[in-house]
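Weekly puzzle thread! Below is a chain. First person to post its structure in token form gets bragging rights.
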Amino acid sequence: MCIAPSLGAGHPRTRCRDGRGRRMSRSGRRTAPLTARPPGRPRPAGLSHGALSLIAAWFAAGTIALLTGATAVVILLAVGLVAMIAAVISGWRGVSGTRMHSVVTSPLVATGDEMTWHIEVTGSQPAHLILRLAGDGGRQTVAHGWVNPGTSTIGGTAPRRGVYRAVEAEWCSAGRVGLVWWRRRCRLTITELVVAPRAAADGAPLALATDEAEGERVTSTHPGRDELDGVHSWRDGDELTGIHWPSTLRTGEFVVRQRFREHDERWVVHARTGTTDSTAEAARVRHTLERGLAAGATVAVQVDGGSAVDLVDDAAVLHWAARFDPHDSAQPTLPWWKRAVLVSPEPDRALSATARRLLSIATAVSMLMVLEPLGYGSTAVAVVLTAVLVAALVTGSRRQLPDVYRQLLGLVAGVAVGAVLIDFTAIDSVGASLRYLLPQVLVSLVVMQGFECVDRRGARVTLACAAVLTAYAAGIRIDDHLSLWLLAAVGSMAIASHQVGRHRQLHPRPWHSNVTRVVSFLVAAAAVVAILAVVPVPRGPAQLTLPTWLTELRPTQGRGELAAADGSPLLGGPTNNRTSAAGASGYPGFSTTMDTSLRGDLGDEVILRVRSPYPDFWRGQTFSNFDGRTWYVEDGTANVKADRTEGPDHLLKLADGDASLYGNDEMVQTFYLQVDMPNIVFAAYRAKRVLLNAPLWQRSDGALRADVVLPAGSAYTVVSDRTEATPDVLRRYGDLARFGSPGRYLQLPDSVTDRTRALAREITAGSTTTYDAIRAIESWMNANITYDLSAPVPPEGTDSVDQFLFESQTGFCEQIATATAIMLRTLGIPARIATGYVPSSRDKVAGVWISRARDAHAWVEVNFRDPGWIAFDPTASVPLSGEARLHTIGADLAAAIGAVIGEHITLVLLVALGGAALLVAVRLTRRWWRRRRRGRWGLLQDHFAAEAVARGAPPTAANAQLAAAFTDDDAIAATAAALAAELDASAFSATWVDDDETYARTRAALRSLRV
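Winning reply:
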């Protein structure tokens, strides 16, 4: 490595000695080796402007995850965490591979002079370089700017007076992500860089002297103004043929200086050390010395009355002024309490117009993602989007409004949006404020912040607000489109963030950089899944904010009796109306009676979305009395008792047969109603708390009834205690028949046949416990019964169980559950029928279980004393509560991605190939457009400059200087010179003519120069 300095304009090309007595060339140029210490390790330098707001947004999203228990918010947290890690790695990579090989500048300058530094670096990415000089003048920053791999030029100004013998290079980078900055330093010992002070306005004291020759001398206060025209006398040491040409040119005549006598004028300038400002003293001395040289005198400097030292020219004067009394030239170090803290290392604050537009798109997506599930119409959405557009126009305009007007306009827009969105009458609890106040305030704040997007800090704060909005939307959305919204929101914010942090002086990326981006994206996606692979599905929201709301309040009549979605009594039975059949009213099990021969016409419409960590039987109704064909809620002797609570926080009592020993596993379920529903409140066993904005009836059999019907869009939350019911635990209870049970759970109709009793004994003959007996019956059902919704109706006057077990052996869940319950009762085991919904699928992104109309179900519940009622069903894949295990979000997400790819493999391949083709087409189009815009000779100029820069030429040099970099041999040098001349002619010559032969010849010459 070397430093190849050159004097700037105004420095005379004279022969002189440097401060160490070494001869210097007449040009003042000196080349010497650089001694470089090994580069230091990369160290964190800080965050970009406004990056702290993104970190704060991540913690805000974490709070939302705790409040909502939403899987999608946890996924966003993982994405944010991976993005943070990627930002750290990207910044580290940006500086870890960067090396500086040479630095070239002028060795002799004055304080404040403009300096040009030519830097040669290697690396994979652009970096922001800061150059500091170390020497007598202390440690000072002299230049900074973006450098690309290869040779770059940055500008700066000369530092304070002194002699500098080392360059400290500090390059910083935040990588492609642009959020976390790293720095790396390298110290290089260089040939002396001499920085003189600027000449002062007044001079220092001086003494005039002559040589020993006798004769008269001419002096004046203004030397040179009173010389006479005439012939200049020869001076001692001049060549005999030497001629002194005129030093001044006046209009119409030559003026030459005339010596009357054979002696020289000598100026001795006095300098004093120990002054309070040695730099000012050196500047005054420099002023007087340069005056003497301009007058043609020989000059010398005398320090503190010592020996006079002759200075032969301007360069020598500058060297002396730079070295004079250097003790006070260093800048004092600030105490630590006065130093700036939390200063961002990001060098740029400007925000491009493209970044501003992308920022508007990202914020608009996040707002739409929130407003849609909250039920806002097109008018409110139009107001919000208009405010976003106005903010983009105001902040993106070239003529910026004064800050006061811009902020006032933002305040007005935010208040207007808040007035349109906020309905204070709907806010009556903490939970209601989370739905009807918090998101509206966030949207208003984002609108106001949009008017602050005039720099990168404001842009990143806006992105942080949009990220919080996205997290909130992910917490409240449970629809099928959540995945698409998340992709749109995260993608738009990532693109906007990248554009906000992008720097203009980026070097052209090679073709394989796009491949690297794709690989990086896939690695990041895999990292998100890997992190989520150890994160279990959330157990539920915080207890303080359990969600509940009703979109419409429609009270029912009576004391907890069943009511249809329209408020009419729900009597049960099938319906031929497809619309009503899709809801709970179309299922015969949701009434006071259930005919086992009826199923109803159920469809695929989604009825419930349940946010719950486990799947379970969502129970809505129980039946204990059977007449051989129909189940009844009441036993025929007395009505089932019911207790009413006002709510919205309902604490439930123990129902008949409920568990006396609870587990320590609370399960929070939030039910989101997708269609109008009756007043049935579904819940997993054993419900102990219900959050519902309406009065609630709790019946003694455990069924829950709202005092209102439940319209679509409503939600309520149930907290249930889960018992640790496992096969081993249930086997410990042995044979339940020996304990005795209430008669209503052992009741059998007179129509039960002997062969039904015999079959029950035969199936369970080898079972020693009730649990084993139940599993034996389930196994027999699976082996001998065909599940068929079109099973034949049992003939009148026959026992439906006998007909099902021995005649048809086909049926659906109501018949299978009935046969199981009756056989268990014949064995003395307490059993009853429950109806409700079972989950058929899971939205792994939203983290909700989905129950459709066809998932209305009937199952058997057996009372196991301490654990209470345990559900069994051979047709539903719902595990025992003690066997259920939490899935991890990563496993669910990987399964969902695999399922989507597997189901749409053709579409995935088409999208991948189409994306690759589009990328190639874009690159080819850009290349064609560049060629069209530059022209063929412009492209030759670009290639010639690139070849020269690769050989070490300054990138801003003229063609003649670029040609000088080709020093391989004389032939190459001659070709380069001719090529440079031809390119100059094509650009500047008025007589140059473009023809194909000249172009072909020039192109061939350029090819011969390539390395």
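Puzzle host: Confirmed. Bonus trivia for everyone else. The mean pLDDT is 82.
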